[in-house]
Amino acid sequence: MNDHDDGLLIFGGSSNPALTEAIGRFLGTPVGRAKIDRFPDGETLIKLDEDVRGRDCFVIQSTCPPVNENLMELLIFIDCLHRASARRITPVIPYFGYARQDRKAEGRTPITAKLVANLISQAGADRVLAMDLHAEQIQGFFDLPLDHLAALPVISKHIESMALSDCVLVSPDVGNLKRATAYAQRLGGELAVIDKRRISGECAVAERVIGDVEGKTVMLFDDMITTGGTATEAVRILRDHGASRFLLAATHAVLADPALSRIEKAGIDWIVTTDTIPLRPIAAQRLPQIKVLSVAPLLGEAIRRIHMDQSISEMFKAGKR
Q1: Percent of the chain beyond pLDDT 70?
Q2: How many whole angstroms separate alpha carbon 302 and alpha carbon 291?
Q3: Residues of the chain with CATH 3.40.50.2020
Q4: What pLDDT score was predicted for residue 205?
Q5: Measured in Å, how far apart are the chain's first and last C-alpha atoms?
Q6: Of 8, 173, 215, 306, which shows the fewest CB atoms inside 10 Å?
Q7: CATH number of 152-293
Q8: How far apart are CA 139 and CA 135, in angstroms?
Q9: How do 128-131 and 167-171 pair as beta strands?
Q10: Would you state the pLDDT for residue 175?
């Protein structure tokens, strides 16, 4: 490493230590030492065991369940680094919680994604590195630079290695069409869309498929699997229209209740996800068809480029067709 590299220092919160260690191995940089303790009343205390004065510091923390505890830990970590005179602080947020609360869907409700962005900024962050935000407009909620990564190259490479034939890529709703189109451009193949119409605030009906899926292997792409409702309903409709096999791919495997039981009943042949969120042991046991890919090299390369003041967008140009 040259002199410019010596200022790099990475830390990890308690949400995803395995991913932090993998990023450290990719960078050839040991993870910074810090103690994360809990007071008897549940308050979080963080004590750095590294001198961070004048250093370029990255804090890797997904705000996955328990969302509030992991978010508060991230804010305290940022404040700790700020008060210890770090030169630059970049929270690396592989999974950004509260991302679905990105607008006022009805009266007298908050825009919590904007609130979280404000909290991160006020805590002392200088820039943010995130992956596959649920809504791209969240980038504009931050009044500081944000680098937005996509897991598309990692997931696409794995699917290409599976050598599946007679495939059609399906967007489970119109709102996800942009993501499905990006995968279609990368993987090739036809594109279909499920027409989902909202009847009320709590009820949506999806019965029409725009495109030919009969006898085909269907690939469904989304940013996250939370309760599994959208994906399993899509599989039901597509099966009714003659689809034969199903691959579900999503960057973030939240898998909140009742996702596991829904996915088990849906008869999905392959599930592809990443390690932005640690996969719960019960999920690995009940879903043997799930494959977890690591985004550590992708995040590690982005961290290296940010530290060296190099372009992030150049990372994705080589893989475009």
Answers
A1: 93
A2: 23
A3: 3-150+296-317, 152-293
A4: 59
A5: 33
A6: 215
A7: 3.40.50.2020
A8: 8
A9: unpaired
A10: 76
What is the model's pLDDT at position 257?
85
Residue 273 one-letter amino acid: T
Cβ–Cβ under 8 Å, residues 81 and 59: yes
Which of the following is catalytic: 196, 216, 291, 320? 196
- Which spans in the chain are helix H? 17-27, 67-83, 112-123, 152-162, 177-187, 229-240, 259-266, 281-286, 296-307, 314-317
State phi, psi for 221 to the nearest 5 degrees.
Answer: -120, 135
Per-position b or e across 25-40, b if 16+ CB within 10 A of its CB: ebbebebbebeeeeee
Q: What is the rounded distance in angstroms from the CA atom of residue 18 to the CA atom of residue 7? A: 23
**How far apart (Å, rounded) are the C-alpha atoms in residues 27 and 24?**
5
Domain 3-150+296-317, classified CATH 3.40.720.10, yes or no: no
User: Residue 259 CB: number of other CB atoms within 10 A?
Assistant: 20
Structure tokens of 174?
């119109």
Task: Give yes or no for residue 301 having a pLDDT over 80.
Answer: yes
Strands 190-198 and 204-210, sheet pairing: antiparallel
CA 66 to mean position of chain CA atoms: 16
pLDDT at 25 over 50: yes
Q: CB–CB of 272/158 below 8 Å? A: yes
Comparing CA positions, the residue from 135, 204, 145 lying closest to residue 173 is 204
92-115: average pLDDT: 95
Residue 300: helix, strand or coil by DSSP? helix
In angstroms, the CA 155 to CA 173 distance is: 20
Give the separation between CA 260 and CA 282, rounded to whole angstroms.
Answer: 9
Q: C-alpha distances in angstroms, 170 versus 23, 142, 211?
A: 32, 32, 9
φ, ψ at 300 (rounded to 5°):
-60, -40
pLDDT at 35 over 60: yes
Annotated active-site residue 320? The verdict is no
What six digits make up the tokens of 178? 């942009």
